[in-house]
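Write out the bound-state structure for iron/sulfur cluster.
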Amino acid sequence: MSAAEIATHCPYCALQCGMRLSSDAGGIAVRGDPSFPVNQGALCIKGHTAAATLDHPDRLRTPLLRGPDGALRPAAWEEALDRVVLGVREVQARFGRDAVGVFGSGALTNEKAYLLGKLARVALGTRSIDYNGRFCMSAAAAAANLALGVDRGLPFPLEDVSLAQVLVLVGANPAETMPPFLRYLEAQRAAGGKLIVIDPRRTRSAEMASLHLRPLPGTDAAVACGLLHLLVREGALDTPFIEARTEGFPEVKAEAAAFWPERVERLTAVPQAGLMEAARLLATGRPAMILTARGVEQQSQGVRNVFGFINLALALGQVGRRGGGFGTLTGQGNGQGGREHGQKADQLPGYRRIDDPSARLHLAAVWGVSERDLPGAGPSAYEMLSTLGEPGGVRALLVFGSNPVVSAPEADRIAGRLRRLELLMVSDFFLSETAALADVVLPSAQWAEEEGTMTNLEGRVVRRRRLRPPPPEVRTDLQVLCELGRRFGHASRFGFEGARQVFEELRLASAGGRADYSGIEWEEIDARDGVFWPAPGQGHPGTPRLFADRFPTESGRARFHRVAPTEPAEVPDEEFPLYLTTGRLLEHYQSGTQTRRVAELIQLAPLASACMHPATARRYGLRDRGPVTLVTRRGSGRFTLEVSRRMPEETVFVPFHFGGEAAVNRLTHGALDPLSGMPALKSCAVRVEAR
Ligand code: SF4
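---
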């Protein structure tokens, strides 16, 4: 590495590829870091072009305030922060403390997520805090916590993926969402491993598979039960493992008995032969690994879908075995760390429950407050957004790094709610669709302008490094959070000089929790290419692999859970005869606030296409690249048609990275998974019109 180069990590997805940045008169150069083991120098096109956002002309460079004429105008920081503090005080005086809400993000560093939770619980005294990870990881997280005792997306390092003799990807498309992951798939296949992909679409990942099962959207749980049925029938279970290390299997076995292949084919449209072939591969290939992602999780029964696949991995005795087990592919850059340190409605730092008396006492001691003053659990993200401006709901909302106008289901309704607030403050580096509705917009620093830590999909804590300072009138979110803490009367509790000091407090706060960072030394993160939590206590080397001997549950055993498959919250009918499903493109990230501003990316993927099988397009008299209107019970949107044989005939796919008329979440369904608060973003009923 040359003297002027810094080693940091990509600002986008949860792979957190290592990258090196350097700056000269020609601009900022980005290259993959060959020494970082996760990506070994590879980057996808998003990573390669990430520096384009830093000096982008759209960049916010000063706070903005909404004036009496309804327009946003530049303002000084003092004036902007005064407006926030006054607005919060007025709302709390009139409506109570919980009427101020905080909305965070899985893109925030660990230190920001931690400080955001502390700001809400200590300085604002509100229970109303949640984050956009609720729309991303919450179903898998809840299922893993209940079944395995802890939620770490991958409880093993990525290198284990290459060792799996059978690898099942369920609702996951890493070939397009995180291309450097492909090296693990390629190594797995080169070693003779089989890849099974379960996904309604013939994605690029599915094209690599030995076997592709294509269930109807929202029927994954029945597929899992059908596979367990066949494995029981074939006597392919690991009975010693089940007896020694799990509980609850008899109930799950009894449930699976009702999912014989003919019935599963009727429920899911997966042919019996395909199901039997998948069961045969799972019965014979060792080690076997199952990885889920948003396709299976963003459903109104997302947790139970995930239970189905955890049950399979447990029944095969693969959890805790090297090259085997169960994991989930986290999406957002700090989707993992962002759900560990207290910006979730029901959680305190260290992945502690906010209703756990000992956790409350621990945090109260770290924060120097009375346990009685800590609020309890608040509403989940979509519940909070759904009641904005209502009696008993949130009246002032502080948003950090999130764009719910594009990413929340029933997005038009949510935008209407945001307009009803007494105060909406948004901190972001571009004027996102949500920031455009705000009363106060704060310009924040970008990834190459700040220090901090992120936790990737493996639970590996890595360092984000600053290449250059932010522009003169731009502040880091940590500076803003500290200033707000001070203005709300807690100067001593928010007197941090920078990310490292916050990290040191986070270590104390997490000590003894499920996600224990107490043994992670700032310098050791560099020395060891990141440190895997849990690292309980000084000098701990970190824990790359979990579950080898026991599960962190009360009994030390993993827990099987009944799946009870049901229909999705909304299924096609005469009026809305097709399924609508949503997902990602290689070229874009989340709500597209950043990537829609990168010239190379927008050239490659300029708009939201509605993707449909040629036979479906013919049925509706539609032509490729022509206009198409999609209508659901929530509203309608206009898209460009893309005809593709990758699609099943009964399903339309639209990527969710676009705003305005093409924001597909204006059409999606807000039904929530009862166990996790995850909305049913992946499946609803739609009608197609040729206009
Ligand atoms: Fe960045 Fe993810 Fe692409 Fe890696 S795969 S370069 S982390 S967006």
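---
The chain has four domains: 6-53, 64-132+334-436+472-527, 154-328, 578-689.
The domain at 578-689 is CATH 2.40.40.20 (Barwin-like endoglucanases).
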